[in-house]
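User: Continuing from earlier, I have the next pair ready.

Assistant: Great, send them over.

User: Here they are, in order.

Assistant: Folding the first of the pair now:
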Amino acid sequence: MKGEMERLKRKAATASLAFNLASAILKTIGAVLTGSVALLSEAMHSTIDVAASLIAFVSVRVSAVPPDEEHPYGHGKVESLTAFAEAVLLLGIVVFIFIEAVHRLVVGGTVQKLDLAVGLMALSTVGSLATATYVTKVAKKTRSLSLESNGQHLFVDFWTSLGVLVALAAAWLTGLTNVDALFALFVSIWLGHQAFRMATRSFHEIIDRRLPDDEIEIIRDLLDNAPGLLSYHRLRTRLSGMTRYVDLHIVVPNEWSLVEAHDLADDLEKRIDDALHPAIVVIHVDPFDAGKLFDEKVRAGIA
């Protein structure tokens, strides 16, 4: 099962890289021939996407490397690091597009061969939508942050390509070349927002933020319905690549044998893994201590 997931991830990363490379080349040629700042912004965006896809292509292979003596928790954090790197790259292109668009609005400029530009953007728009849909589908199935981040890049590419297509068509039909620069300015602002969101999420995963609320709720539901379990505490969670890490303490009756306590812990570990697969769950068993419980209630002011 895991091998199949890794194969899907590699295939999606390869498809993303191939599309972005072809798109970057076509848009760059189009920008040079037409002088369109909007098309130039898309060419630069696609060039950054090539780097992002290459990072994703490498990261899904590195993150799949099994744990070793130096990295006992595996290499899943590589995906979070690469997602953060993609966000930084995207922020760089945002600054460039913004400056270029403002310069074109102030100084002015001409756009040539708009029919060629429109044709190239139409082709790019269709291709980016198809590739983004495929990569995002694989990302959800494999729970790959790196591919999800790459899929977001591709969907952003689709919408910006569509917008640039509309802007170039409007300039072609009306002769108002300022539409080209105005849309490039809009693209820079939108991309900046997307890059900030991506950077924030990946940064939280790098510093081991807990799992999302819905996944925490799944864990709590399993614990609350475990037969014989008196209580639990010290629940800690984090995400590394596509693997969830969960550890906690459970409290069982004093009269239970070691085998009974172990069986409950083992069953809960398997249930949590099944619900959040792949997950590595470690449960520590504590015997019930009435005196300790009373002391805790006193400190909490409820006894």
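And the other member of the pair:
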Amino acid sequence: MSFAWPIALMLVVLVPVGAAAYASIGRRRLAAIEAAGGLGRPTGQPAAAGRARFVGPVVIAAGLAIVVVALARPQAVLSVPRLEGTVVLAFDVSRSMAATDFSPSRIEAAKAAARSFVEQAPPTVQIGVVAFSDGGVSVQVPTSDTAAVAAAIDRLTPQRGTSVAGGIEASLAAIATAENPTAGYYTNRSPGPSPSPVPPGSHASALIVLLSDGENNERPDPLAAAQDAANRGIRIDTVGMGTATGTNLEIDGFTVFTKLDEAALRAIADATAGTYYDATDAAALTGIYDQVANALVVKPETTEVTAPVAGLGLAALMVGGLVSLIGLGRIP
């Protein structure tokens, strides 16, 4: 357990000080009674009164200590169940994405489409961002914080070659970690082989949205990575960035021709029971959320438990006061 205001715990030293003061007052009261010849001594049920003399104050002291703990705003890590889905936006950030057959460029068009997509996100869907060029890496863990996702998208810039498989593998690892946070977050590694294949698309609470021109020039084979996703039941919806006519692009002093490889993107989507989208169809992109079914996920979360602790302390104070009132006819 941790505390938001741990300095408040220093107040707990007042509890034994108060208890000592109460005991001292009690001794002086008894001494005064004895000096008066026993006048005012409790009668009727001396045993009950004796117990109340100690039990009531002890319970009240415990209640005060618990209230002090509540003032420190205790926090505990609790396993919280909730319904949610996970979408990972996998961005191609290879150099070919700097091509301008989409205005102002493929990468900027992809970022614009993704921002619009994120703005429509329902609160029960967590969104992560993966970038891939000659390898794949997570730049934003799946979260419901759309501002953090948008900031991660804004940071993307074209890099080196293209490994579509690297992007798929990093996305699978991000989904696995989002659904099982205790496994650790290593989205630059493959999540490992699936224990046993399941029907493609059967893992309805998770989805990868791959935004790319489809041109691949790095190993491994994108279709092999897509088959790994299919074996896990995770769909990949692909979004084609670029045009079939293509354009020339200057890279390190060389002129390179680049165009949209729609066939490759369709093959990835088909292998996973996903859908291929044209990047110009913004309405279709926002409809992707309708395909994500929420699943019950249990995650550890740091939760403030001030209210129940304070309630326990107040209950102890009431019980202690009631015991003293019944046994002694007064509250300490």
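Worth noting for the second one:
The chain has nine helices and ten strands. The first helix runs from residue 14 to 35.
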